[in-house]
Amino acid sequence: MKKLRIALLGAGRIGKLHADNLVRSVANAQLVALADPMLNDDTIEWAKSIGIERCEKDPSVLIADPDIDAVFICSSTATHADLIRESAAAKKHIFCEKPIDHKLDRIREALKAVEDAGVLLQIGFVRRFDHNHKKVRDTVASGRLGKPHIVKVTSRDPEPQSAEYVKTSGGIFIDMTIHDFDMLRYLAGSEVVEVFAYGAIRIDPELEKLGDVDTAIVTVKFENGALGVVDNSRAARYGYDQRTEVHCDKGCVQVANDLIDTSMISTSDGVYCEKPTWFFLERYNQAFIDEATAFVDAALNGKPSPVNGNDGLQPVLIALAADKSMREGRPVKISELSRD
């Protein structure tokens, strides 16, 4: 079967993760080149160790190469929209890490370029491919439990990000909660129409200088009448806390954390089990593989994107509404931002 010839754009932590998966775990994927403006000897050595012979500093060189079928955009967020437009113009299929951009006009311009070019675009909301969350979604979507009433997402990182990261991340709603906003839509099968958010600084007082928070509760209203809630913390000292639940007419479906192991030790002193896995690299490893596999399958077989451009736009709209709500102390309708 034909292989999809892929160029990796950005060889940081997430780029290397995708590269390893494409090389070792994804059938019909052929990772043939990478580009990174910060390319150095260590990156070149790593690339060669997994079979990538061609390394460039300028991504445009690879985008223009007619022998390359697709790109994985894993560079900094500020470059995503431009690389999407350039790749679409070159008729490349595109996988892009989230978010597409922080600005709505740049996102819409990128999506228009994809539509005009008729290429595949998949956004990297990896949690959709997790075995637990997918089971919740599939159960709700089947109608077995009736209409959804309440959608709950708990998402807490094991340790806070550095101040340097937060300075350019776009804030908690864009860099962290955006995954949970995608989960809300995915699990409810409906669009968010209104958002109310509270934020607090309970972990790192330095965040006040950066205008960000480390603890948040976000409530939403869905178009289908259901309600949703997300709770976030940047420091769950016991590990990566990832739980979802949907309460419906006829029952409820919920999933707990993946643990380091499932052993349970019972003694006269109590009952003990392991903590959740430490962070996203451990928790969502198989989901990253399944995500890349879905992209390659869609690109080779002309299937629709499992996470399309609108799926990239809507969580940013929700994030911007949440930020506006937190700062203004009022509910914010998505339609207020959709007009911007």
What does this structure look like?
The chain is an alpha/beta fold and 340 residues long. It contains 14 helices and 15 strands. β9 (215-222) and β10 (227-233) form a beta hairpin. α4 packs parallel to α5. The longest helix has 20 residues, at 309-328. The termini are far apart. 45% of the residues are buried. The mean pLDDT is 96.
Spatial shape: globular
Please give the count of helices: 14
Described by strand count, sense and barrel closure, the largest sheet is: 7 strands, mixed
How far the N terminus sits from the C terminus, by CA atoms, comes to 45 Å
What structural class should be given to the helix and strand makeup? Answer: alpha/beta
Question: What portion of residues is helical?
Answer: 40-55%
Largest beta sheet: strand ordering: 12-11-7-10-9-8-15
Q: Segments where pLDDT lies below 50 for 5+ residues?
A: none
Rg:
20 Å
Question: Number of DSSP strands?
Answer: 15
Mean pLDDT over the residues: 96
Strand percentage: 15-25%
